[in-house]
Specification:
- The chain is 35% helix and 23% strand.
- It is globular, with a radius of gyration of 17 Å.
- The protein contains 7 helices and 10 strands.
- Strands 6-7-8-3-9-10 form a 6-stranded mixed β-sheet. A 4-stranded antiparallel β-sheet has the order 2-1-4-5, covered by helices on one side.
- Bound molecules: adenosine-5'-triphosphate and magnesium ion.
- The site of magnesium ion has 3 residues, from helix 1.
Length: 220
């Protein structure tokens, strides 16, 4: 589902490369945890995979038949992202001026799903994350845990084959974090998607199928 090879990245003005010659893959249906100390480059790696940042070298092949997102232009990257990738950010990124239902509908718009299907798909996802009846609520009236569940629903609603999650429970108390993570894993498995989940939590990492550790020397 995801094959990364020879990947190298150095941010402009940075004294050393964040990573070079990284290689790993995530199989169809596999959930992989990505751990490593703060500042090591986990978010940068995820952003490269999502086509939101560009590596200096290497290939990032997504799906089958495989498409190297690094080689695509902006428009084609956006189209691949809209079709195949779901992203859960640390800080929710739920848009405050849209209702919960409209927020979850954004990926459906981007993926070109017929409008007639939006309400039922949104409802199904909201029920799946334990928030039935929340479609017309405004994000400002939701708790942190509820917002993160909305973010999970939004990452999954267009049935992407690959979910990328960057510290999906970083802003939550441990109990809520545990519940949200269990939900994310359950939903990813229900959709038979693959996932790469960045986390600082041992507990979260151990709930995944496999753990990759990013170090200054590369992946372990
Ligand atoms: N756009 C950018 N331009 C320049 N430097 C950047 C940019 N983005 C990140 N960096 C730097 O690259 C390094 C890696 O950042 P990154 O956000 O990938 O780390 P991380 O492993 O996700 O850390 P954390 O666990 O704290 O989220 C940091 O030193 C950061 O300051
Ligand atoms: Mg990060």
């Amino acid at each position: 589902m995801l094959t990364v090879s020879g990947l190298a990245k150095r941010h402009r003005e940075a004294s050393r490369a964040l990573f070079s010659d990284l290689a790993f893959s995530v199989a169809a249906g596999e959930i992989v945890a990505l751990v490593g100390e703060s500042g090591i480059g986990k978010s940068t790696l995820l952003n490269c995979i999502a086509g939101l940042d560009t590596p200096d070298d290497g290939a990032i092949e997504i799906g089958s038949p495989a498409v190297d997102i690094v080689r695509l232009g902006e428009a084609a990257r956006a189209a691949l992202r809209a079709r195949s990738i779901g992203f859960v950010f640390q800080a929710f990124h739920v848009l405050p001026t849209l209702t919960v239902g409209q927020n979850i509908g954004v990926p459906l718009l981007l993926a070109g799903v017929p409008p007639a299907e939006h309400a039922s798909r949104t409802q199904a996802l909201l029920t799946g994350v334990g928030l039935p009846g929340f479609a017309d609520r405004w994000p400002a009236s939701l708790s942190g845990g509820e917002l993160q569940r909305v973010a999970i629903a939004r990452a999954l609603v267009h049935r992407p084959r690959l979910i990328l999650a960057d510290e999906p429970t970083g802003n939550l108390d441990p109990r809520t974090a545990g519940q949200v993570l269990t939900l994310l894993l359950e939903r990813v498995r229900a959709q038979r998607a693959s996932a790469l989940i960045v986390t600082h939590s041992r507990h979260v990492a151990e709930a995944c199928d496999r753990i990759l550790t990013l170090t200054p020397q590369g992946l372990e």
